[in-house]
Each structure stands twice: as C-alpha cells, then as structure tokens.
C-alpha cells in the first residue's frame, strides 16, 4: 500500500478527514444490486488508494452501514454465503452502532436442499440480530426464508426502521402450508415512511397518526382486508403519497367520515376481489393532488357513478388512469375523461368503447392544435376486449393525434403527439394501411391483439 504524496498542490490531500468521510459516502453504489465483497467498489476500493484513505474509511461508521447479501453477477454457492458472513461481521464491527441498511436478494429457486441452507440460515440470523439498528431493509427472497424476516419485523425492536420492503418469491410446496401469519403494529416503527409487502403480515394502523408515505401490498399478499381497514389506514396515515391496497372481502362498516381529505395522495391503486366494493369510498375522499389512479376488480363489476362524482368534486390532475374489471357506461366514461385534461396514459379493459369514443378522441382539424377534443395530452391509449369500434374510426383517431405539431408542448391547452395505441380486434388489417405504416416508421407504437370471433 502506498502513502499519499505530500503535494501541496493536491487539493484533495488538504481536505479534513470529516469532509473526506462525507465524500466517501457519495462513492457508495446507487443500485441495491451490489455485493459488499466487491473490491472494485466502495467501501473496499477506498481503502486500497492510500494509507490515509484507508484509516479514514475504516473509521467512518456510516460507510460500513450498508449490507448486501447475495452475489448478483453469478449463482451463489455455499462458499459464497460463508464469505458473506465474514464480510457482514466486518461491516457490523466497523459501523459501530450506526443505523444500517440491508439488502437481501436470493435466487428464486433457492432451497435448503441446495446445500446452502445452513450458511444462509446463519447469515439471516446475523442480520436479524441487528434488527434494533435497521434503518432500511430490502428483502426479495424465496417463501421458505420469508417467514424469518417477517417474524423479526413483527417481534423485534425496529424503532429506527424507515424503509421496509419484503417481497416473497415462489409458492410453498404441497402439504407444507403457507408462511405463518404475523401482525405488525405500525406504532412500533414510528420513523417508518416506506412499506412494501407480499408476505402475509397484518398491519395494525390504530394508535397515533403515522409518518408512512408509501404503502404497497403486492401480488401474493393474502391478508383479509375490507373497506373499514382501508378507511382506518387512510385516517391514520395522513401523509400517504402512494397507496396500493388490496381489498379481499365485504365490509361491515357503515360509517364513513363526511370528507376524508387526502391532501398528499398522488398515486392510488386498488385491487379488490368478489364481494369487496370500494365504490362508496369515492363519495367521501378529497384528492386534490392525485395523478395516478388504478382500479382493478378480480371479476368485472357494475357501473361506478362515484368515480365521476369524485372527479367533478376534486378535479385531480390525473396523468394516468387504469380501469380493469370496471364496467362503466361509455357515456359516463367520456364524461369522466372530459374532467382529466392532463391525462397521459389511459388503460380501459372492460368498457364497451365504440366509434363514439373514437370520435371523442379524434382531433377535429389536424392543422389546428387548438381543436383537440378529449385528453389532448394523451401519449398512450390501451383498450381491452370489450371495445367494439371500427378500424376506420381507429385509423382516423390515430392519424389525427399523430399529425399534431410537437411532442411535448408546454402549453396545457395544446395537444401532444400520441406515441402508443394498443387494442384488440378481429383483424390486424390496419397494420398494412400505408398511412398507418408511415406513422409506425416515424415511431408510433401500434399493438393489435387478434380477438377470436364468437361461435354462432
């Protein structure tokens, strides 16, 4: 190892150790997919430059507070987990009592029978033993190991935790049962602002109001929830900006706040099963900043008058709207869209859109940018199998929106060029139309899925 040259002209050698330590923190890899054993990256690389840097790096607790488990460039072997245990021990010692950030990403098919079970278990136990220091945990792991992380999250001291993401991959083999059901009281993590789960952890929102800003329950989350639980979540988490909530059963709740003012909410995604109906929720919420709204029903449901009422009342600046399994009458849909002039992305899967919808989306005069009708800022448009418009109407709409001037006009009232359309049809003849082909050559993405005609 070399000694740093005593060169008065070298500005970096004049920096105080405290400042160098702060600079070293900026050298840590931004991606979570990095190995703490990688000698070509910080923090290990910093100690190879010179003795002074090594001394400063080793004494900077925050620099060693980021743990990552897994080698993301190749398959992990038994010896790799043993090396990770050694590296983890060094990091824990050098980080002192500093709050730690942990990333655990394991192979989708990893099982104890692979010969890695024992060292992997030891590694997870070492991480769990530091739960009182957890600041951030990102765990994307097979189901067989998810229960250990979930149990630690729910039963250990996690008062310093700010970010928790537990996504469980795969499914349990027959006759082994699912992961254990756990319950987590949100007041146990007063600093928590980010929570993502696919593991079955029942979240208790009661108590004082919470600081959480992002809450997402992903595919595979099977905790029974109803509209009453969702209402409690919204009341107790007033700082939410992003919410992905899954409703699995009907609600016994009959009382709602007159107005639920969700002033920070920008993204709302609701997935609900048969029997769960959040329609009434939209009669009570005030979402002045909502930009992303996704509603998905496991089975196509009836009309949604409350959606239109909410849009009329709040006029949120929606830029993305997805309706999947939601049956809305065509005229009601058009009225909803007339209230979303800033919409960029629209996905409609179970509304019977006809040539009436296509006409509403067609710009009246392609040479006059002020003649835009519905959603002038639209960039991506997707229709499902319920739509029954003609190819001619689709062609007129596409050509009118492709020929407008400019791609990203800063003037809200002016239309922008559409970049993608996806729909189902009995034929893909439009793909051989010369005018459409010219648009596609210029960059338009047009996707046509062939729909099988119903038997007579």
TrEMBL record:
It comes from the Eukaryota. This is Uncharacterized protein.
